[in-house]
């Protein structure tokens, strides 16, 4: 009997051990056991994958040769300790991948040795000595970077899990991973328990280490937030945004709230790019370990939709439009977008356009998704990623404004009528930027920050981000009485948004976007309509801008245009002061030097400039009392934190209701080699308002060859089915739809 019981006991233990091994199979987070076997079978036959692997191997071999350094934290972004710990997290993740693919224990040993060093120091680490952040980390000055570290290191741990002994795993989980996850979550709820790109990283970090450790409590905390936690609904973060006003938290809430049904992320493309890595890498882990969550189907598959939206928020060079806080030059060549493209292709509908972007990126992830992309490229499936005009709604239900992008030939017009964009939002409703073949004609300034450059404010946001970059005058939109939209206050701006009036890209020759804003200035309505029109009378498509202002008071209105390039000529006279003075005292005006002031001499005002071998002309219908001002960014900036770039402002004083109409042409070229200028003059000889009523606005455009075109927009009925009859100067016009052009 005893012998029988022993046999049963052994049998049961064997079953439990087998079940345990099956339940804890590793790797399973990003790499999978089956995926690794497939990758190994394809090595040497898939050029893009093989090249990515060899490049990574050379980098990590060089790191291993340098030895391991886990210094005591002391620096802000850009300082040595910050950079070293940031590099360590990436190197560990990559070494773990190499161990799995190449089956070379030196990479596993390297990861193990570094993890043990971190285990040794983390137990006694206090909060980071730099106190600037609203949520301090331990390895880094803010919990955000600590979360970055754990997202990457979770992947490394998964890759070397079976290499480590049970005692080593227990030691790491007890002294490093569990305390680390607790610090960025339950110890730092002001960071973790919210809807924000910061907390997305935190959720992913806690969830990914939870998946590796098979810790249900951590996984649930990641998906749903900290249970039964009450937060101060008035508390704000370092950027002035509410921390948890709505009480929502967790990874799923961070999918539900910031993303619109179209995949637009409310903080803008720069932060969408930053957040996409934790969104997608945790989603991939959930898909592999917890397929029952169906994460790629969540909210109608919005995570995969968001990648298409993000790629469409880039110019011809792949640089993201710097909406809200956004650093210029950030592009889809960033590693986060390599992740996005590969995962989108593998888990989506295998869009061949994504393969063409992967070819440009010239690297792939070393996992199942990267292999699929590399095989697609190898098999000649790549097709150009076709960026077309697109309207991206904002808000969780798509009802909080949006961003419209009109594309025609090499021109791209970006029209922002989005919601505030969380604490990274700017006060720039109905603003625009304009590009030709990736070059800015009219710029959005972006953020005021030198990211990870320690000499400039520790690599963090500069004070000028609030005093200049976020203010309305820093953007190409209307400013009333030298005040910013929503008083420049987040608690007001977060309650409101413009409303789409019209988006129509059905006619490739005439594409229009139009929106209305009624809350930026109480008692004032702004209705801006922008169109890109392709017509045989012009060398290239031109942009038409109609901005109607209706107010219950008399105001001063400023409409700035931040053009890029060298002034060529104007058709008005202006005076240049001998001593420069700021244009104003606050709300961003204190950062503008007043470089020239002119007055109207003709019905139309013209400004032409040259940039990167191309000519551009602004033609505006102006009034005799308008002031024309040249300005330059950089006043009250003793540390030279701002770029010294030019702007042109049309100022209209003592006015109640008014209409700003302008057109911008891209035309001709100049070669410094042949020293020849081609088509350097504007094709517009006159731009005139021929009718402006509550219901209709009509603009005539006369070309240099005396051909006259008429554009009419219906101001109160945007229906495509509506029919209109209108008499202008004794001539009847009839049409269907929201606009007329002929």
Automatic annotation (TrEMBL):
The keyword Lyase applies. Residues 394-646 form the Heparinase II/III-like C-terminal domain. It is found in: Periplasm. Its main location: periplasm. InterPro entries: Alginate_lyase_dom (IPR008397), Chondroitin_lyas (IPR008929), Hepar_II_III_C (IPR012480). Keywords: Lyase, Periplasm, Signal. Residues 94-315 form the Alginate lyase domain. GO terms for molecular function: lyase activity. Coiled coil: none annotated. GO terms for cellular component: periplasmic space. It comes from the Bacteria. Residues 1-23 form the signal peptide. This is Alginate lyase.
């Amino acid at each position: 009997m005893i012998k029988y019981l022993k046999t049963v006991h052994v049998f049961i233990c064997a079953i439990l051990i087998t079940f345990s091994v099956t339940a804890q199979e590793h790797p399973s987070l990003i790499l999978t056991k089956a995926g690794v076997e497939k990758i190994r079978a394809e090595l040497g036959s898939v050029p893009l994958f093989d090249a990515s692997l060899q490049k990574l191997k050379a980098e990590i071999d060089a790191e291993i040769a340098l030895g391991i350094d886990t210094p005591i934290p002391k620096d802000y972004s850009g300082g040595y300790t910050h950079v070293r710990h940031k590099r360590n997290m990436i190197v560990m993740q990559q070494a773990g991948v190499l161990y799995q693919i190449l089956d070379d224990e030196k990479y596993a040993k390297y990861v193990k040795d570094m993890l043990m060093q971190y285990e040794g120091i983390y137990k006694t680490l206090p909060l980071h000595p730099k106190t600037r952040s609203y949520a301090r980390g331990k390895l880094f000055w803010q919990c955000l970077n600590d979360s970055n570290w754990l997202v990457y290191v979770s992947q490394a741990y998964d890759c070397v899990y079976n290499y480590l002994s049970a005692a080593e795993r227990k030691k790491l989980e007890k002294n490093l991973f569990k305390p680390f996850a607790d610090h960025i979550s339950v110890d730092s709820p002001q960071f973790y328990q919210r809807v924000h790109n910061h907390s997305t990283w935190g959720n992913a970090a806690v969830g990914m280490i939870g998946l590796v450790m098979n810790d249900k409590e951590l996984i649930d905390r990641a998906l749903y937030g900290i249970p039964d936690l009450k937060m101060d609904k008035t508390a704000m973060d370092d950027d002035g945004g509410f921390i948890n006003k709505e009480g929502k938290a967790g990874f799923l809430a961070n999918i539900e709230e910031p993303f619109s049904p179209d995949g637009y992320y409310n903080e803008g493309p720069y932060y969408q790019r930053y957040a996409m890595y934790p969104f997608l890498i945790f989603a991939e882990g959930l898909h592999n370990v917890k397929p029952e969550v169906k994460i790629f189907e969540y909210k109608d598959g919005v995570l995969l939709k968001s990648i298409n939206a993000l790629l469409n928020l880039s110019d011809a060079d792949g640089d993201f439009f710097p909406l809200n806080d956004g650093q210029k030059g950030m592009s889809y060549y960033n590693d986060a977008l390599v992740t996005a493209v590969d995962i989108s292709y593998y888990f989506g509908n295998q869009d061949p356009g994504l393969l063409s972007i992967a070819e440009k990126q010239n690297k792939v992830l070393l996992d199942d998704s990267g292999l699929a992309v590399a095989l697609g490229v190898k098999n000649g499936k790549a097709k150009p990623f076709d960026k077309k005009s697109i309207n991206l709604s904002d808000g969780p239900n798509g009802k909080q404004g949006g961003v419209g992008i009109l594309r025609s030939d090499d021109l791209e017009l970006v029209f922002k009528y989005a919601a505030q964009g969380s604490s990274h939002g700017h006060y720039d409703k109905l603003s625009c930027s304009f590009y030709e073949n990736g070059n800015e004609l009219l710029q959005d300034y972006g953020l005021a920050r030198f990211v990870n450059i320690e000499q400039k404010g520790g690599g963090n946001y500069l004070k000028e981000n609030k005093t200049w970059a976020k203010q309305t005058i820093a953007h190409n939109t209307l400013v009333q009485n030298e005040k910013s939209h929503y008083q420049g206050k987040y608690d007001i701006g977060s309650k409101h948004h413009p409303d789409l009036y019209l988006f129509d890209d059905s006619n490739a020759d005439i594409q229009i976007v139009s929106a209305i804003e009624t809350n930026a200035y109480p008692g004032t309505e702004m209705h801006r309509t922008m169109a890109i029109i392709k017509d045989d009378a012009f060398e290239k498509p031109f942009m038409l801008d109609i901005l109607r202002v209706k107010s219950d008071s008399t105001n001063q209105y400023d409409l700035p245009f931040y053009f890029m390039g060298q002034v060529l000529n104007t058709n008005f006279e202006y005076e240049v002061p001998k001593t420069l003075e700021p244009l104003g005292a606050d709300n961003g005006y204190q950062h503008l030097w007043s470089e020239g002031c002119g007055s109207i001499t003709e019905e139309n005002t013209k400004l032409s400039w040259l940039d990167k071998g191309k000519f551009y002309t602004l033609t505006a219908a102006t009034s005799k009392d308008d002031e024309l001002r040249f300005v330059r960014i950089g006043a009250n900036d003793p540390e030279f934190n701002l770029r010294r770039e030019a702007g042109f402002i049309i100022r209209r004083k003592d006015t109640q209701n008014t209409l700003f109409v302008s057109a911008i042409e891209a035309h001709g070229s100049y070669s410094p080699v042949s020293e020849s200028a081609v088509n350097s003059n504007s094709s517009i000889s006159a731009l005139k308002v021929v009718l402006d009523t509550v219901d209709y606005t009509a603009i005539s455009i006369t070309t240099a060859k005396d051909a006259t075109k008429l554009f009419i927009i219906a101001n109160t009925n945007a229906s495509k089915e509506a029919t209109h009859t209108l008499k202008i100067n004794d001539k009847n016009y009839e049409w269907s739809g929201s606009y007329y052009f002929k």
